[in-house]
């Protein structure tokens, strides 16, 4: 994807951290923005900042672990802008730092729900939309360096990020086999100054 002006960027986890940085970069490229986040206060603050630059911004409160929320995000995106061209499946949580056997069922469900199912829902919902559009589009899934390296006391997080890397690679091959105009990247940052480990 080479042309960004007036195209639509959808960013989950768009109210803070990497998501907000991506939104600012997309705004600088004159894109229209759809910001999705579960936190309404930071979402409104981010939208106000970006709108002040003249950028068209739609905000949608979204729990990416819920299929119906991501489906609603797509529906509202299409209603407002008519398409989606650059989708960042970026929402994520850090989870707990405990020995593997001490992570509870709730810990696993929460981290995998956001970090894995959130990306699955984003891919499942937005890829068909992009394919139907027939334009050059791109999907960026946020994983982590933890998707390649396993460290002590990070089991739910590391498992989730390994999963996102694999999902992205398989999606890439599937789209290549279809000669699709939809590209895929997986973002694997190392230590970044965000609040991901403070998520509740």
Q: How would you characterize the overall build of this protein?
A:
- Strand 2 (32-37), helix 2 and strand 3 form a beta-alpha-beta unit.
- The termini are far apart.
- A six-stranded parallel β-sheet has the order 3-2-1-4-5-6, with helices on both faces.
- Helices cover 46% and strands 16% of the residues.
- It contains five helices and six strands; from the N terminus they run E-H-E-H-E-H-E-H-E-H-E.
- The model has no long low-confidence stretch (mean pLDDT 95).
- The protein has helices at 17-28, 40-51, 67-81, 105-133, 155-177; strands spanning 8-12, 32-37, 57-61, 86-89, 137-142, 182-187.
- The chain is an alpha/beta fold.
- Helix 3 packs parallel to helix 4 and helix 4 runs parallel beside helix 5.
A few lines on this structure:
With 200 residues, this protein is an alpha/beta fold.
Radius of gyration: 16 Å
Shape: globular
DSSP helix count?
A: 5
The ordered string of helix (H) and strand (E) elements is EHEHEHEHEHE
- Helix fraction bin: 40-55%
Proportion of residues in extended strands: 15-25%
Structural class: alpha/beta
Poorly predicted tracts of residues: none
Question: Spatial order of the strands in the main sheet?
Answer: 3-2-1-4-5-6
**How many beta strands in the DSSP annotation?**
6
Q: N-to-C terminal Cα separation, in Å? A: 35 Å
* Average pLDDT taken over every residue: 95
Biggest sheet overview: 6 strands, parallel
Secondary structure layout plus pairing:
Layout: E1 8-12, H1 17-28, E2 32-37, H2 40-51, E3 57-61, H3 67-81, E4 86-89, H4 105-133, E5 137-142, H5 155-177, E6 182-187
Parallel strand pairs: 1-2, 1-4, 2-3, 4-5, 5-6
Helix pairs in contact: 3-4, 4-5
